[in-house]
Amino acid sequence: MIVVYTPAGGEPEQYDAKSLLTSEASIVARTVDMKWPEIKAGLVDEDLDAMRGVVWVLKKRHNATLRFGEFDPGVDEMVTRYDKDETESWFDAAFHLVGVDPETTVERVAIGLREAAPDAVADVEHALAYIEKRRAEVEADEAAGKDPEPEPEPTASAPARKTSAKRTSASSEPSS
Questions:
Q1: Quick one: pLDDT at residue 151?
Q2: How far apart are CA 34 and CA 28, in angstroms?
Q3: Which residues sit opposite 79 in a β-bridge?
Q4: Does the pLDDT value for residue 27 go beyond 50?
Q5: Which of 86, 87, 81, 170 is nearest to 130 (CA)?
Q6: Which end of the chain has the smaller Cβ count within 10 Å, N or C?
Q7: What are the contacts of 69-73 at 24+ separation with CB within 8 A?
Q8: pTM of the model
Q9: 3-class SS at 151?
Q10: Which residues are 13's β-sheet partners?
């Protein structure tokens, strides 16, 4: 999960929660008084404490003296976005539904994902390219008369997002 922090009047900064070391995750957990699984779930729900804790610890890598109380972003300055792996797992699961119901066509899945991606993913360009790649693969399988190969259950499918946040522009540095 990527936390996008856009300070008032500043440029968006992306912080990848997967890059935390165990010791850093422990610091976040103690500081915000949550267990790590609660923090991970909180990131999906855009919990302010979870997002603030993750960004603060990652900012401390470059500013070791930064205190938690000194990092107090506005409530609308942080949102979460799916990283590339989470995005691909979500899209793979969606394309796996093609054909389950006659209404669930390749094109409908692709359209739905293209509409949802800008507000949900950190790297929109990657997401749109991946949608087209998977769409072409599923269409090729259909044209060859093959049933789509059963895909392994995604280990990190994209959970439902509970957010009303508006899309922020992504930084130029891609995340993994």
A1: 52
A2: 8
A3: 4
A4: yes
A5: 87
A6: C
A7: 73/5, 73/7
A8: 0.78
A9: coil
A10: 5
